[in-house]
């Protein structure tokens, strides 16, 4: 009986995540999307959130972010210095599971921190920004992110609702041709301006201008109503999200998930080759494996 209650709760949570918002994935894609597997935890985060669960959230609700937002010019100086040194770049291997698909579309990044103390490379190259971040423990992850002319990110939703995403424009085209769309509403970045949104809504981005877009990208802990829900959020972040840490340079930490990702991706490449050769067989095997997983769960 308990097993069926848990299965029903999972299915209900997954359906809620799918139908939440105006923009949705195809149902067949949502079934295998990573946000589906996190749905029960995410529904808990939404239910006990102390800030609105709307696609965009007012960053003024997070007063601890004020020093970071106010000193954006100093942060920009460090980001532009990194660009000159060509340190804002794509991953050099299969060690960034969270953003691996973005690199093919021109997106680049330099990690400042990831659910831990700043990377050694960030502390050395960006002392002002990392010092500011160190004073704001609710910022769980931060990076400089670059989207070049013609770059774009496909529609996606992030897997975990324990944080909200803050973007601060550092060097942007200041043009409506460079934008992010969250659940059907667009925002165009501007130098020195901040925008915050819920990354578990489907979002996409494009830069159709001839200028680079460089932003400070932060994941800020979602405020929750009770200590126990906050404890759940931090436990998931510490034990699962932190495992996706990706290095900038040798000496930076690589999380367990990214250490495994390189081996997994070799299988993924073989699957892609099979899809090119025989698409029908690829989908038969994909859905057969998914069905087998469902049967296994039911029989446990």
From TrEMBL:
Swiss-Prot/TrEMBL keywords: Dioxygenase, Membrane, Oxidoreductase, Transmembrane, Transmembrane helix
Homology family: Belongs to the aspartyl/asparaginyl beta-hydroxylase family.
Coiled-coil regions, chain positions: none
InterPro entries listed in its UniProt record: Asp/Arg/Pro-Hydrxlase, Asp/Asn_beta-hydroxylase, IPNS-like_sf, Lipid_A_LpxO-like
Top-rank lineage group of the source organism: Bacteria
Organism in which the protein naturally occurs: Dokdonella koreensis DS-123
A Pfam family assignment: Asp_Arg_Hydrox
Protein name: Aspartyl/asparaginyl beta-hydroxylase-like dioxygenase
NCBIfam families: lipid_A_LpxO (NF033391)
Extent of the signal sequence: none
Regions that span the bilayer: 280-298
MF term (GO), any: dioxygenase activity
Domain Aspartyl/asparaginy/proline hydroxylase: 70-223
């Amino acid at each position: 009986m308990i097993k069926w209650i848990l299965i029903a709760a999972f299915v209900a949570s997954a359906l809620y995540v799918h139908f939440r918002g105006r923009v949705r994935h195809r149902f067949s894609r949502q079934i295998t999307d990573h946000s589906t597997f996190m749905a029960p935890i995410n529904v808990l985060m939404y239910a006990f959130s102390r800030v609105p669960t709307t696609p965009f959230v007012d960053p003024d609700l997070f007063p601890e972010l004020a020093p970071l937002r106010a000193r954006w010019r100093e942060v920009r100086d460090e980001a532009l210095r990194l660009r000159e040194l060509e340190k804002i770049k794509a991953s050099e291997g299969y060690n960034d599971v969270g953003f691996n698909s973005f690199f093919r579309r021109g997106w680049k990044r330099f990690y400042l921190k990831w659910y831990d103390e700043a990377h050694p490379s960030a502390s050395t190259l960006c002392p002002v920004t990392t010092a500011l971040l160190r004073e704001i423990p609710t910022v769980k992850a931060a990076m400089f992110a670059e989207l070049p002319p013609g770059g774009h990110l496909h529609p996606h939703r992030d897997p975990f609702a324990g944080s909200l995403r803050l973007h601060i424009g550092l060097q942007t085209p200041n043009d409506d041709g460079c934008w992010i769309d969250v659940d059907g509403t667009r925002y165009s970045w501007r130098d020195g301006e901040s925008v915050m949104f819920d990354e578990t809504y489907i979002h996409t981005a494009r830069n159709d201008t001839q200028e680079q877009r460089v932003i400070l990208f932060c994941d800020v802990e979602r405020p929750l109503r009770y200590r126990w829900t906050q404890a759940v959020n931090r436990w998931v972040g510490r034990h699962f999200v932190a495992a996706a840490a990706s290095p900038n340079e040798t000496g930076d930490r690589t999380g367990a998930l990214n250490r495994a990702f390189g081996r997994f991706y070799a299988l993924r490449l073989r699957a892609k080759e099979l899809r090119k050769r025989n698409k029908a067989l690829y989908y038969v095997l994909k859905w057969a494996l998914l069905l087998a997983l469902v049967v296994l769960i039911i029989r446990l």
